[in-house]
Amino acid sequence: MTVLGFIGVGVMGAGMCAHLARKSGARVLAADRCMDGIHALAGEGVQASSLAQIAREAQTVFLSLPSIAQVESVCLGEDGLAAHAGALRTIVDMGTSDVERTRALARQLAQRGIDLVDAPVARSREAAAHGTLLITVGAEPAQFEALKPWLACMGSDVLHCGPVGCGQVVKIMNNMVLLDTVHALAQAFAIAERAGVSRALLGQALELGSAASFALRLTGANHLARDVFPEKMFSAAYALKDMGLALSLSDAVGLPNEISQSTAAQLQRCVEAGYAHSYYPVMVRVIAGQGQETA
């Protein structure tokens, strides 16, 4: 029986790991710093494991981790996957990671006979739970074809973007456009309210006009209009991290990016105002001049 590994069973990873176990027909071994989430997936056939066991028994391992720093540690740390590699041949990073560090890590792992593929996911926590993620893949064509059946267990749209790192480029640009758009929406909601038009009315009008968009549907009526920005969603701190990746990529290719610099500055103000863990459209509160004490 094919053995797959999955590391990082958090907000996104839990749904992804469940779908992989449910649909792949493979034995799925999973590990996380907090094993509670893995035990909760036992009914899906997910087996609690360790990095060492996964590296010994699984030929392909999927990572759903917060940043490239954690990916590097899990792959090359003293007790990481490479240190225990037995059956392991391919590691698939499904988080959003720095492009140049992803490519550097791929070179380091290649020296140990392990391929690194980047396959970051887009859309929402609900999409992860329903197996309808967009997955943008950086891999050689043969690698992509070999991995596509596993990735299709977790995503309804699996797109080959080019060699290693290119999946991250596409994902980072996706997030950059979304975050810049929501920044503009937050500005519009704050201005309209200050000028005497309710947020609810503005949201309805924008949906009917040429400004209608996925970003508006995602954040408009339920969040910007209602001033509701829960924790345990895509937070201002995570959004700021992704804008940093976009700005680093802009610098690497030698192109200015004033729009995203402005969005990053606004997200930084959110973090400093005490909204680091709030859903990132909370930008509207800071733009409107509200502080944490009014939340």
Rg estimate, integer Å = 20 Å
What does the overall shape look like? Answer: globular
Number of helices: 13
Low-confidence stretches: 291-295
Q: What would you say this structure looks like, in words?
A:
With 295 residues, the chain is α/β, with parallel strands linked by helices. The chain is 53% helix and 14% strand. It is built from 13 helices and 9 strands. The strands form 2 sheets. The chain has a 6-stranded parallel beta sheet, with helices on both faces. The chain has a 3-stranded mixed beta sheet with strand order 7-8-9. Helix 1 (13-24) packs across helix 7 (141-154) and helix 9 runs antiparallel to helix 10. The chain is globular. It starts with a strand and ends in an 8-residue tail after the last helix.
Produce a short descriptive summary.
This protein is of the alpha/beta class and 295 residues long.
Task: Show the helix and strand layout.
Elements: E1 3-7, H1 13-24, E2 27-31, H2 36-39, E3 46-48, H3 51-57, E4 60-63, H4 68-76, E5 90-93, H5 99-110, E6 115-118, E7 121-122, H6 125-130, E8 133-138, H7 141-154, E9 155-162, H8 166-194, H9 199-208, H10 214-224, H11 236-253, H12 258-275, H13 283-287
Parallel strand pairs: 1-2, 1-4, 2-3, 4-5, 5-6, 8-9
Antiparallel strand pairs: 7-8
Helix pairs in contact: 1-7, 4-5, 8-10, 8-11, 8-12, 9-10, 11-12
What attributes does this structure have?
disordered C terminus; three-stranded mixed beta sheet; alpha/beta; globular; six-stranded parallel beta sheet; 295 residues
